[in-house]
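Sequence and structure are no longer studied apart. As an example, we show below a sequence and the tokens encoding its fold:
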Amino acid sequence: MSKKSSPTHFNVPRIPFEGPRSPNPLAFRHYDPAEVIDGRTLKEHMRFSIAYWHSFRGVGGDPFGPGTIRRPWEAGKDAISVAKRRMDAAFEFFVKIEAPFWCFHDRDIAPEGATLAESNRNLDAVVAHAKQLQKATGVRLLWGTANLFSNPRYMCGAATNPDAHVFAYAAAQVKKAMEVTHELGGDGYTFWGGREGYETLLNTDLKREQEHLARFLHMAVDHAKSIGFKGQFYIEPKPKEPTKHQYDFDVASGIAFLRTFGLEKHLKFNIETNHATLAGHTFQHEIEVAASQGLLGSIDANAGDLLLGWDTDQFNTDVKELTLAMLSILKAGGLGKGGFNFDAKLRRPSIDPEDLFYAHIGGMDAYALAFKTARRILSDGHLTGFVAERYASYDSGLGRDIETGKLGFRELEKLVLTKLGEPALRSGRQEYLENLLNRYLTGG
């Protein structure tokens, strides 16, 4: 898309905001990009991003059948021409859906060549086109990343591969991906270790592989400094699929990894809802764990089907789950350079171009409503006040002395034996708080 006339790829107008009572399925009911809240527009607060890989490379395939989705812009024999036409369609969509950001893997936007040099030339050609589209539309890059999992060379991992040649190839690929992310003004760069794990310990040196992964990330940090890239680095936890055991299992194990290898000052977490549930956690739990250590970075906005034990990457319209997540995000002070990236894909039978709009409208509305609801909960202070009162015994006296290290086991034993005696039991009032949350969710 440019200021000159260009073909329309979607027979859908720019999505308007029409309010909660609108019956129009192609209108926002809760996400008003221009609404000003606390001096910033809702568009600026939400920082919504579209995942190029699902929305414009996903074809609806699954392990039991080929793709079902066909797009008119995919026709043609010249791969670079098709890639540019696909990108034209993508930016038309970004503008019409009122998303200020997009995200990509290097191999999403440009075809892989027979050699790394050819792949780099392909990438340069398409990045130049993306740069023009960004300038024409105002849409920005939230973050970029490299696909280090699809090509057979990465069957045993990239940075954790037992073959140093593969490690070197992965480093060269990430170097280029970081450079084009920088060229496009990306606010960050994400490392998703799609195959950084193992299938069996019978052939794995776990200690060495984790050390190699850390060395790889330190190399990336050094290269970012050398090219002047000041974007935020993210690591994205995922517990399983495709490997039996991923080294970045969840946020807690990720924190341990970062601190063990001195990387905690350089990387934060890009947290995905579906990955949280695959790890046996809630979305809110992973956010709270990252935020508690000052490492909350960005969000991959999706959901999984809890009846399935794999990564279904669905659009999340569960306002209760999202409100709880938003409470934790807002208490942490927001996402900074991060945003809400719709790492979600259409269901296999949703084959029409309009389905892309329905899906993103639903997700954006749900997140916007959750944001507003969470703000109201925090503003009213009932929930935060309850939590503060529950821990009030640590604000002074005995509790303060415990937190500041003034008392040890001997002193505490003496106090209990001579003065304090048996503690009184106090209700956690879980059911009351759940009812309180429901009042907000239902507009009460």
Q: What stands out?
A: Confidence is low (pLDDT under 50) at residues 1-5. The first strand starts at residue 36 and ends at 37.
